[in-house]
Specification:
Helices cover 58% and strands 0% of the residues. By secondary structure, the chain is an all-alpha fold. The chain is globular and about 45 Å long. It starts with a helix and ends in an 8-residue tail after the last helix.
Amino acid sequence: MNRREALKNFGLGAGILIIGPSTLSLLQSCKNDAKNDWQPTFLSISNGLALQQILNVIIPKTDTLGANDLNLAQFIDSYMDQVASEERRDNFKRSAASFAVAFQAIFDKDLNDGEEVDFEKIISKYLNATQAEKESFAKRETETQDPMEEIAKLELNADSGSLSYLKEIRQMAIWAWKTSEEIGENVLWYDPIPGQFIACGSVEELGNGKAMSL
């Protein structure tokens, strides 16, 4: 499977995250972090390890480097810890908890005991859901707004929260993957000294079929 096919499987053809220079600097600082000794600073350890598993499914290593080769879990965790707004941080942490609840309900096991095939199945369940299924998830969200039933609310909202969590990870991951130095310079169409502007040129001719590095 090539990179284009891998991204297409989970709808990664669009939706680039636009973030400022501080985030670009953070992304570059994560590229040399040790993978085996990493411990999350924002997420719990179990959610951090699950994040790596999720990213390995969404952007696996194929003919090019995958998400975990580029330490994108470290980047996402650091971004939420250092850059994201308080509201976004809270939403991300709550949706991570919802994902853990959904995982337990589906596989009868904790995140720590999850295998690659488990993560493939649960990611496909949510990111490949039909429009009717997504609307059903949202409906359950509106039906469980009783603050006196927090535990039941979390369980019933697991589907909606999991979908939100995976969509957020997917958006950040594809932006970070395409923006990383390794991918931008060695995989995408990279031209450090742009020449003339050709408004209607063929991508196949101008970039040898590759998207242009941003």
